[in-house]
Amino acid sequence: MSVSPRAGVVKIQAKKWSKTKILILCVNVALVIFAALALVVSGLLKNTLDAQKFAEKWSSNTEPCGQVSVFLAGSAGLSAGEVDSVISRYEAALSEAEIPLSQWTCCYSAEGTLSVNALGQSIEAKAMGVGGDFFLFHDFRRLSGSFFSGNDLTQDRVVIDETLAWKLFGASDVSGLEITIGGQLYVIAGVVQAEDDFASSAAYGSAPVIYLPFEALAMHSPDTKITCLEVVMPNPVDDFALVTTNAIVTSLISEKDNVSIVYNTTRYSLSSLVGLISDFGVRSMRQADIKYPYWENAARIIEDYVLLLTMIVFVLLIFPVISLMVLIVKFCRFCGLRIKEIGHWSRGFTN
Questions:
Q1: Mean pLDDT, all residues of the chain
Q2: What separation in angstroms does the CA of 30 have from each of 18, 79, 124, 273, 316?
Q3: Where are the beta strands (DSSP E) in the chain?
Q4: Same-domain pairing of 36 and 122
Q5: For the chain, how many structural domains are there in total?
Q6: Residues of the chain predicted below pLDDT 70
Q7: pTM of the prediction?
Q8: Are 273 and 316 in a shared domain?
Q9: Of 63, 120, 156, 284, which is the most exposed, with the fewest CB atoms less than 10 Å away?
Q10: What pLDDT sits at residue 280?
Q11: Same domain, 266 and 287
Q12: Pairing relation of β-strands 65-72 and 259-263?
């Protein structure tokens, strides 16, 4: 646009874009599209693991909740009695905050190895001793049967995965059949299939798995301790679940390297990912004595991919942001010059 103060005429003249400007525009559009695709993939990855979103499911019955996982080193593991004490502390904290106890739940687990026997053969299997509402947090796909509950009067029911079912019986529809462990008889309550997403498949491994009450695992393996505690509760104030968990755990375990606390609710948020950047290259060296269960290892795989995609998004947007800033500066200068020229024109017109 050009202005002629003497003639009092404003002329608008379209300028052709140079090849360089067209190229810059195409590059910016392409970078923004790739950044958007990276954000979409990142969003899909964040929703991959249901166990990381249990607080959302639980929140449908109450106010917004927070989900926290506590992982302990083997040397700092807890007995069933000590876990009961931890649960009592949670209930006291909730009562003090005037939160109904029906609005929270938890589960715990320990890992070991057991020989499972059936039909004259013995299979070495990974044994997960679980308690509380474990199968609420980890709602595996059932191929047959049902789950057992921490409230069961008897501790003689187990859940096995598809791999162990096929190794023992050559089929997956085996709920109701019996197995023995150390001469003790157990009934198969159900058969489950491990998650089939890429992260869980990588973390789960190929070993057969049996899930049984922690008391049963402790009976066969007395030295086994509980090393994983998962909690979901209302957040009447920001991060109430995390703050409460930190207070309870630190009062029991003073050595920081023996405990890892994960706030599942915000683990994929931008602030949490920035924290991972500061920890990059060293978090795998810390807490060497902590053995994470497969679902946490799967979550950490997803975490790494989300972090990578987030960094890619930032890199991809550098040039478009700079281009936009340059455009804004030029536009402001353009507007300033035109205002001055229009001012000169208006003064000339009045004269």
A1: 88
A2: 19, 57, 53, 25, 9
A3: 2-4, 9-11, 65-72, 105-118, 121-132, 141-145, 157-161, 178-181, 184-193, 209-213, 228-234, 259-263
A4: no
A5: 2
A6: 1-15, 60-62, 153, 280-288, 336-351
A7: 0.85
A8: no
A9: 120
A10: 64
A11: yes
A12: antiparallel
